[in-house]
Every structure is written in C-alpha cells, then in structure tokens.
Amino acid sequence: MNVAIIGSGLTGTLAAIYLKKSNADTNVILFEKSADKTLRGIPYSHQLEYQPLNVNTKGMTLFDDNPLHFFNWWKQNHTRYPEFKNIVPKEGDFVQRNIYGDYLTETFENMNQSVSKPVKIVNGEVIDILETGNSDYKIQLADGGIFEADKVLFALGNFPPSDPTFVRTSAIADDPAYISHPWLDNAIDDLPKDASVLFVGAGLTMVDLSVSLKKRGATGKFYVVSRRGLLPRPHAETAPYTLKCVDKKYDTALELFRAIRKEAKEAVSNGIDWRSVIDAIRPYTQTLWLNLPEHEKRRFLSHIRPYWDVLRHRMPQESFRQISGLQESGQMELLAGRICNIKRTSADNLEVTICPRNQTELVKINVSRIINCTGPQSDYRKLNTPLVTNLLNKGWFTTDEQSLGLKTDIKGAIIDTAGNSNRKFYTAGPPCKGTLWECTALRDIRSQLNQLIPVIAN
Ligand SMILES: Cc1cc2nc3c(=O)[nH]c(=O)nc-3n(C[C@H](O)[C@H](O)[C@H](O)COP(=O)(O)OP(=O)(O)OC[C@H]3O[C@@H](n4cnc5c(N)ncnc54)[C@H](O)[C@@H]3O)c2cc1C
Fold first, then answer.
1. Ligand 1 site: residues with CB under 6 angstroms?
2. How much distance in Å is there from the Cα of 189 to the middle of ligand 1?
3. What pLDDT digit, counting tens, does each position of 437-446 carry?
4. Alpha-carbon dihedral of residues 105, 93, 46, 214, nearest 10 degrees?
5. Per-residue pLDDT tens for 56-87?
6. Which domains does the chain carry?
7. Rounded to an integer, what distance in angstroms lies between the CA atom of residue 339 and that of residue 194?
C-alpha cells in the first residue's frame, strides 16, 4: 500500500511516524513544498529571538504512552544550545519552538533509520490529485513530478492570515510597510530599531514578535489593536478538576459559556485556579462543539470566541512578564477597536485612524510598519493555493458550514460535495477545525492520529 502524506509539519511528520509503527510494510511518501519546513512545519522552523512553545515540556510529548519523551530529550540535549547549556531542565519549561523542531526531526529520523522501508521525503508542492481509473491516485507536483498513492493524508496545516478589511479598502496591500505574513522568517528583519509598529491582532503571534523586537533593542512604540483589546492570559500551575457543567446538553452557546463561567467563579471562591476549570473542559470540547446546532456555532464564533481564546490559548509566564513590562514602560499600548482608515503621510509614516470600541471619538496614530497578526486563514475558498483550488473545483473537497476548514467526519475522512467519504482522503490537525473545533494543538493532533492511523494503515 502506498500512502501519500501532503505536508511535513508536525501533523504530517507525526502521522508518518505513527504509520510506520502501525504497519512497517506501508510505503509512505511525505511531500513538503518548503524545504526549510521539512519535518518541522511553520511554527517549529522559525528563528526568532523569542518564540516559546505555548505548552510546557510535559504537554509536548509526541507519544501518549510516553509522557516524558520530550522532557527526556530536552534533559539530554539542552547542553547543545549555548543559551540553555547551564540550566536545570524542568517539566514546566517552555522551550523555544525551533528547538522543538529539532526534537521532531530527530525523532522522525531515528524512526526512519530503524525501518526496512524508510519513509521517502519529496520536496515539492503538490498541486493536484488525479484519478487513474483504478482505485489509486496520481499525486501531481508543481515541477511535473507524478507519484502514485492508494490513500492520501492531507496534512496542510495553518495557512497565513488573510488581509483584514482595512487592507482591502486602502492602498496599503502592496505597501512595503505592511507585513501581511507574520510567520515568514524575515518578517521583521528590516525594521529600524526606532520604528513604531502597529500589530493588528493581540494573540500569541503578536506576543512573540513584539518581545523578539524588544530583544533586538527596539525603542519605537508598539501599538496593538484588536476588536476587544484582550490579551491571552498567563499560564499557571493547574490541578486536576472534575467538571460539573458538562453533564448537561446545551442548546445555545451562550448557555454553555455562562455555565462554564459560573463553575469557574465557584471554583475560584473555593480557592481553585480558574485555569483548572478551563483545562478540565479539554476532553469534552469536541463533543460540546459537535452537539451545538450550526447557528449556535456561528454565534459562538461571532460573540464568545474572543473571550474563550484568551482563556484557552494562554501565554507562558515569561511572555506575560515581558508584555507587562512593555505596557508599564509605555512602549506598548493596547487599543480595543477597528482600523477605519490608513493614509501615507510621508516616506516613513502611515497615519492610522482607529474607531475605538464603544466610543465615538476617533483615535489617530502614526506608525512606520503594520504587522498582520490576525491568525490563520481558514476559509479554504479564499486560499490562493493550487491544490486546494483544484480539489474544491472537482468537488473532492468542500468546506465545513462555518468555513473553519474542510468538511470531514469525526475521524478525519474527507467528505466531498456529494456527501461521500469513500475516496480514501484523510486529514488531521487544523483542517478539521470546523468538525472538531479543538484540534490544532499537539495534544489534539496526537489523539486524532491515534484514531485515524489504524484506519489508514489497514
Ligand atoms: C505560530 C504558531 C505557534 C504554535 N505553537 C504551538 C505550541 O506551542 N504548541 C502546540 O501544541 N501547538 C502550537 N501551534 C498549533 C499548531 O497548529 C500545531 O502545533 C502544529 O504546528 C500543526 O502542524 P501541521 O503540520 O498541521 O501544520 P503546519 O505546521 O502548518 O505544516 C503544514 C505543512 O504542509 C506544507 N504544505 C501545505 N500545502 C502543501 C502542498 N500543497 N504541497 C506540499 N506541502 C504542503 C506546508 O509547507 C507546511 O510545512 C502553533 C501554531 C502556530 C501558527
């Protein structure tokens, strides 16, 4: 059996490892379009000064049955990294993401050296899948290469953010002062030290970039604007907690959110950290999401998601300390609102007008760069990616009702426009967000692959 895995980020690489463990005879080909992302993907190949994992070493093992696998690797290998040579590794460490990339690559390579039929890695962009007339497929690459496969796992991951409305309605899109793709390795390389920067979006990407700029000696002002002006909350130690609110089925997203908030408040009044309640929801999140009617999922995304995201996707304490320091010194200013106009006033100045949330008076700020940190584009119909466009056009891919990814069943079998899932096309990780909601972090990818790989391997 030939299995093609398209994308060699965390999901594709881990899928290859699990596949070979499950059935060593399977021929696996792993395709990756960006050579520098091979066996790493987007998050774990960056080389920023500051880019910690947002989960500690305990939570970043590649194997459910070996919870200390990453921690033990870190203990054995930290001396290879000059800045961490003299530390005493702890399970609660938030290791740099590019170091995690080394762990992922080495774990794959160790596996691949030990099997009789190693996984073949092909660097090239897959642009289409063709039917052969038999029960298999031809995988077509941009350089003309063709490979055969019986089953295909699309591990396409996160796509760069889309341009917000203000970009499409102003002349900023092609202006070099506008950085549309924040995860490019050189995204902030040419910024003068005194550049004033506007970050659009206040999530973890903004945190990594602003702290990295500060570590490079940046002295310019950092403005951060997001719809509600909320920052991710800091991590803290959590304790196991038994949830009460999940015993019930909820008809509306608001009812569910209120029940969680009530339980968190009660927990706090009993001396329990609210994070223990949020973390205790993780095992139930997918079921809670699956049980919500589509119109309630939509309401969750419009009204509740910003509040949920800052509680769920937290930042390491060190990031919180750094961001608080930037705010206290006045270098960083957080604004709630939306950008309503951008005007270039000189060669190195953009005048940005912000409509603050719940206020009528407009705010004008002057910046020399704008960085789009609004999070991955998940509406596949808006992607300018040949593979996705071709498969949407054939009707072999279709998007989920909320345009959060691809339509799939709960295990990751891809459902086509006719509602069939018999094509032997599968996906895992971020493309499953519409189906499962909670599926982008390693912990969810591991559990998804643990269920999906036996289906693919047999
Ligand atoms: C900045 C950032 C930080 C994160 N930090 C954490 C963290 O600390 N902990 C955590 O658990 N999760 C984190 N996440 C969540 C993240 O979704 C997962 O950890 C994981 O990286 C997802 O891996 P992936 O392989 O699905 O996606 P990606 O890393 O996006 O990899 C997809 C790969 O597919 C390739 N590809 C796409 N299309 C094609 C094609 N047509 N042909 C060939 N190759 C193709 C891409 O080049 C890419 O290398 C983070 C996400 C981001 C964006």
1. 6-12, 31-34, 37, 41-43, 53-55, 125-126, 155-158, 183, 205, 387, 429-430, 440-442
2. 22
3. 999 999 999 9
4. -170
5. 999 999 999 999 999 999 999 999 999 999 99
6. 2-51+96-159+377-457 (3.50.50.60), 165-233+315-372 (3.50.50.60), 245-312 (no CATH)
7. 23
